Amino acid sequence: MTGPRERMVVSAALLIRERGAHPTAIADVLAHSGAPRGSAYHYFPGGRTQLLCEAVDYAGEYMATKLDAAPSALDALDELFAEFRKQLQHSDFRAGCPVVAVAVEAGDPTKPDQAKPVIERAAAAFGRWREVIGERLIADGVPAQHAGALALLVLSSFEGALVIARAARDLEPLDTVQAQLRLLIGAQTPPPGRKRAPR
After folding, report:
1. How many domains does the chain have?
2. What residues make up the domain containing 104?
3. Most exposed: 26, 130, 154, 198, by fewest CB within 10 Å?
4. For residue range 4-48, what is the model confidence (pLDDT) as tens digits?
């Protein structure tokens, strides 16, 4: 059983993915999580900025763990798309990626002390996902010198498809991009049981 602090972090991530970062207030997180009133600043003395940072950390690690557990790069790709396809369907196309939400909304030039740490956490989450995807690609036989670039292509293509799917209220962008990425990854990995010849 998780405590009120953990519930608040998870609730913040869930609310951010549907509402965005700016509209998600601490009062909303308290109501969603069922945490006691007055507990926010006890658990998060850094206020809303600290809560946003920890929500991004949670979202980043949650997906990184799922990707890392996948037995292959294609399985990791399928896991990534399946997770967000399910979220879109269950939320009537409101739920996107909470890491993207804070990355695009946190840049208030009048509050750089609040924006900078949140954006840094978002960059770290994207970097972690790219690293895990790259590791899966290398394990499947993609040369290390190409794996990082391919992982970035996978990640950016996925995030773009997710944004378009939300706007169009249609899963077709996810389906199309997933199929194309599967072809691309398949073309760069040797068949099971065969190792790529060294270059």
Report:
1. 1
2. 48-188
3. 198
4. 899 999 999 999 999 888 888 899 999 999 988 888 888 999 888
